[in-house]
Automatic annotation (TrEMBL), chain A:
Pfam families for this protein: ABC_tran, TOBE
Gene3D superfamilies, per the entry: 2.40.50.100, P-loop containing nucleotide triphosphate hydrolases
Keywords on record: ATP-binding, Nucleotide-binding, Transport
Organism: Orlajensenia leifsoniae
Name the record gives this protein: ABC transporter ATP-binding protein
Lineage: Bacteria, Bacillati, Actinomycetota, Actinomycetes, Micrococcales
Record-linked InterPro entries: AAA+_ATPase, ABC_SmlMolc_Importer, ABC_transporter-like_ATP-bd, Mo/tungstate-bd_C_term_dom, P-loop_NTPase, Transp-assoc_OB_typ1
Domain ABC transporter as annotated: residue spans: 1-245
Single Gene Ontology MF annotation: ATP hydrolysis activity
TrEMBL record, chain C:
Function: Part of the binding-protein-dependent transport system for molybdenum; probably responsible for the translocation of the substrate across the membrane.
Cellular localization per UniProt: Cell membrane
Family matches, as InterPro entries: MetI-like, MetI-like_sf, ModB_ABC, NifC_ABC_porter
Protein name (Swiss-Prot/TrEMBL): Molybdenum transport system permease
Gene Ontology CC annotations of this record: plasma membrane
Phylogenetic lineage: Bacteria, Bacillati, Actinomycetota, Actinomycetes, Micrococcales
SUPFAM superfamilies in the record: MetI-like
Species the sequence originates in: Orlajensenia leifsoniae
Amino acid sequence: MTFTFAATLAERGFDVELTIAEGETVALLGPNGAGKSTLLNLIAGLIRPDSGRAVLDDRVLFDVPADAQGARAASNAIRSRWMPPHARGVSLLAQDALLFPHLTVLDNVAFGPRSAGVHRAEADARAHGWLRRVDAAELSARKPGQLSGGQGQRIAVARALASDPGLLLLDEPLAALDVSVAPAIRRMLRDVLADRTAVIVTHDVLDAFTLADRVVVLEAGRIVDIGPTRQVLDRPSTQFAAGLAALNLLLGTASAYGIRTDAGSHVAVPVGQSLPEGARVGVAIRPALVSVSATEPFDPALNILPGVIIDLETRGDLIRVRTDHLAADVTPGVVADLDLSSGARVWLAFRPTDAVAYLL
Amino acid sequence: MSVRNRTNESSRNRRRSVGVLAIAAVAAVAAVALAACSSPTAEEPGATSASSTAASGLEGSITVFAAASLKSTFTELAAEFETANPDATIALNFAGSSDLVTQITEGAPVDVFASADEKNMAELTDGGLVDADAPVDFATNVLQIAVPPTNPAGIATFADLAKPEVKTVVCAPQVPCGSAAVTVEQATGVTLAPVSEESSVTDVLGKVTSGEADAGLVYVTDVIAAGDAVTGIPFPESSEAVNTYPIAVVKASKSADVAQAFVDYVSGDVGRYVLESAGFGKP
Amino acid sequence: MPGRRSSSYAGIPGWVVIVAVIGAAFVVLPLAAMILRVNWAEFIPLITSESSVAALLLSLRTSVAATALCIVLGIPMAVVLARAEFWGQKVLRSLVLLPLVLPPVVGGIALLYTFGRRGLLGQSFEMLGVTIAFSTTAVVLAQTFVALPFLVLSLEGALRTVGTRYEAVGATLGARPTTVLRRITMPLVLPALISGAVLSFARALGEFGATLTFAGSLQGVTRTLPLEIYLQRETDPDAAVALSLVLVIVAVVVVGLAHQAGEFTGFRRGASS
C-alpha cells in the first residue's frame, strides 16, 4: 500500500509532495493554517487540487495535469482523473468522533462493510471484532449520545478500520479528549497503527513520538522538514519543530571559531564537533539549561546572548522566560530577584557542552 | 442624590412612554386594518360632486348593498343619481346576496338592499329588518349558455349540454344561478352531468374563458358583461327559471327619504334603461 | 449549547408580554367566536351529511397524496439547494419558494395555463388521453403546488444546520452518495422532514384558491372541505361553521404533530460542538 502524493492548490498556497511506504505512519506537524487539513482533505477526496497526482497501491486517486488548470473544462475532463471519496479506500478520522447519532455503536462500525456490500450478519461480525480490538465490545448496543468522549473516539477508530482502508487519515484524534483518557486512546492507536499506512495530524509531540515512524513539518502550505521522528524533533530545522520539541533553536552558519547566528551573535560549539565552514547549521539547547542574568556575565566558558523578554509563563514549578532569541526555564526565585518582566533587557547564557549543533 | 432621582424619573418616564407607545401601536394596527377593510367594500363614485347647488330637496348619504351581478349597473345608476341629487351621496357595497344578508343581520349600517333573488330578501323580511311590503321587483335575469368564442363542442341547444363528451360547468345548487339551472333541468327533463359545480358565476365563466370547459350555465347579464371572452347561446327553456331581483329600503335606515328615492330611481325609467342595456329583463 | 434552559435569566420586558397577549388574543378570539356559533344540537348530523363526509374524505385523500408528492419532489430539491453550488441558485430558491407568498388564486391560474386543456403541458397530456382539469389529480396538483415550499424550506434549513461533516465521514467509509443520502443525511434531518411533511399536509388541507381556480368543484371529485365550507355558507351557515370546526380540529391535531416532530430531537446531541 505505497502512497505517492503531489498536489498544488493556488488558492491556499499549497504545494506538497509526499511518499509514504507501506505500513508507515507519518505524523503531520505544523502551525494552524499550515495546510494540514487541506492535505488530508485532498487525499480523502473532499477537495480537488489545481494540479497533482496521487496513487495509492496502483490505484490513481486523482491525476490533474498542471496545464489542465487553465484549459477549458472539456479538455480538462478528458485529461483529468478523479476518484470519488467513497471509492478511494481512504478513511478519515477527525478530532470529533462524528459517530452517526441515529445509529447504534454496532451499526456505526458496521457502516463501512455494509456500504461495501457486505451482508448484514457478516458486517456485524466484523464490527464486533473491531469493537473488541478497541476494547469497546460492551458498548455495541448504545447510541453515540450515551458515550463519553474517549469511548466515542474508540468507536470512531473501530469504524474507520472496519472499512478496511488502504490509507488511514487521522486529524488530531486526541485533541478533543480529556487528558485523563488520552493516554489510553494513544496506546490503542499505537497498537492498531503498528502495521498500517497512516497519516496523523497532531499538535502533540508525544503523539509523533508514540505513533509515527516519520514526521512531516508543514508551514504555509509547504513541507519545511521531513524525516524520522527522532531526527526531526531532536535536531529541528525550523522554529516550529523546535517549539514542538520544547527546544531553543539557533540557526546560523558555521565559521572557523564556531557558529555565527543569523541574528549576528557568535556561539561556540562543543569541543570535538567539526562543522565545515560556511555550512548552514542549527544549534539546539534545552530551556532548562539556559540561565538568565540582568548584567552581562564575565565567563569566557559560556555562550552569552542578549535578549528582550517577550513574556513569562508559569510551567509547573518553573517559569519560562521567553525572549526574542532564546527561552529559559528558571525558578520563581530568580524571576523575583532579577525583577523580570516583559520588555526587560537580559543576558542569556548556556554552556557549549549543553548545546547540540548539527548540519541542516 | 439628585442623580439618583433623575434616574428614577427617567425610567418612570420611559415606562410610561412605552405604555403609550404600545397603545398607539395597537391603535395604529387597528386603524390600518380598518382602512384596509373598508376601502374595497364601500365605493363612493362621485362622492366629491356634492358642492354644486341642490336641484332637489334630497340631502344625506346612504349605503347600498347590492348583489355582485349588479355591480356595473348600480355603479352607473348611483353616479347618475348623485348628479341629479348633488346633496345626496351613495356608498356601494357589492357581494354575494347571502353574504350581504349575513352582514346586514350582523348589524352592518345599510340603507338599501338589492338582492339577486327573492329568497335572500325573504330572509330580511322574515327577520324584520325590512318591512314585508317594502321589496320591489326591479329586474329579472335568465340563464344563458356561455361557450368559448370558438364553441369547440358545437353547442346549440340546452340538450347539447348533457352530451357525455361535453364538459359542462354549472353553479352549485346552493347558489342562485345553480338553483336556476336545477329548475331548468327539472322542467325540461334534461339531466346534466357537470364536471364541476362552482360556487360563483365568476368561477363558471373562468372555466369557460380559459377553455377548460366547453360550456357553462350563467346569467345572460354575465355573458354580456364578459364581452368577447365568451359567446352567449340563448335557449328557450331558460324561461322556466326567471330570476327576480327585489330591492328595498332597510328599516334601520337613517336617511329613509334618500333611500326610497334611490329605490324609485332604480325601478323607474332610468333604472330600467340601464338595467336592460346590461341584459336584465323587465320584472 | 444544548440542554441548558432551566433557571436561566429570561428578562422579558413587560410591554413585550402585553403585546404578545394582544397578539395571541387576536389569533385565538376569532376561533373561540366561531366555536360559540356552532349549532351543537345539529353538529353531528351536519358534519356527517353525505356531502360533508365526501368533502372530508376527499380532503384527507388528496392531502395525503399531495404530501407524498411533496416528499418525493421536495427531498431532492432541498438537497440540491442545500448542497450543490451553481449559478442562479439564489434565484432558483426564490422561485421555488414563490408559492408561499403568491395568492393561491394566482397559483391556480398558473396551473391552469400549465396543466389545463389548452395549457403548456395540458395539450400534450390531452393527446396522451390524460385529462387533468376537473379531476382529483388537479386537486392534488394544486395542493402540491402550494404545499411544496413548506417541505423544501424546512428540509433545506435542517440540511444546512446538520452540515456536511457526517456525509464526508460516510463517504470516506466507502458509502456511495445514494447510500450516504439514505443512511446518513435523511435520518439526520428526519425531524425536519416530518415537521415539513406535516406542515405541507396542513397547507394542502387548507388549500382553497388554487383548487377553486384550477380544479373546479364537484362532490367527491374535486370539492374539498374548504370548498364545501365556502359553498355551504351560501345556504347553510350552521353547516359551514360545523365543518370549519372540523377543519380547525384537524389543523390543531396536525400542528400538534408537527410540534412533536420538532421536539423529537433526542439524537441531536451528538451533532453539537
